[in-house]
């Protein structure tokens, strides 16, 4: 997988995702926060919405993308998600997590050049969404 050097802006984006999930964390409601930097430099953050019936839950990345689009942003630079541990977990560390498959599809649909921040083998990495969803279906294919 091709990776890119992390920048100060990337670490700031991680800090924003941590801030939003720390602020709004609730057991069985919100345990993932995401932050999205648009190409214009604006940062949008959101928490995921958990439901008792899993299929109606909405990921933080999807909500951040929706907020950005609703604010007139169309082009995205970088996105990151951070997981807050549940209150009964012993490890209280907030961790950067990889986007789920549906979020990978959504990110690639709306911004095929978007960078993703994730943790692999205990290290923060930066890659392009295309690396996480190769041979993606598109209207052009």
Structural class: alpha+beta
DSSP, total strands = 6
- What would CATH call the architecture? 3-Layer(aba) Sandwich
Regions with little confidence, pLDDT below 50 for 5+ residues: none
Over the alpha carbons, how many angstroms does the gyration radius reach? 15 Å
Determine the number of helices (DSSP H or I, runs of at least 4 residues): 4
* CATH topology term: Cytidine Deaminase, domain 2
| Shape designation | globular
Helix content: 25-40%
What is the CATH C-level name?
Alpha Beta
Average pLDDT works out at: 93
Biggest pleated-sheet summary? 6 strands, mixed
User: What sequence of helices (H) and strands (E) makes up the elements?
Assistant: HEEHEEHEEH
What is the total number of structural domains? 1
Assess the beta-strand content as a share of residues: 15-25%
- Please name the fourth-level CATH homologous superfamily: Cytidine Deaminase, domain 2
Distance between the termini: 22 Å
Key structural traits:
Cytidine Deaminase, domain 2, globular, 6 strands, alpha+beta, 30% helix
How would you describe the overall organization of this protein?
This protein has helices spanning 8-24, 60-70, 101-110, 129-132, and strands spanning 32-38, 43-47, 76-83, 95-97, 115-120, 123-128. With 141 residues, the protein is α+β, with helices and mostly antiparallel strands. It has a single domain, classed as 3-Layer(aba) Sandwich (Cytidine Deaminase, domain 2), CATH 3.40.140.10. Strands 1, 2, 3, 4, 5 and 6 form a six-stranded mixed beta sheet that branches. The chain is globular, with a radius of gyration of 15 Å. The two termini are 22 Å apart.
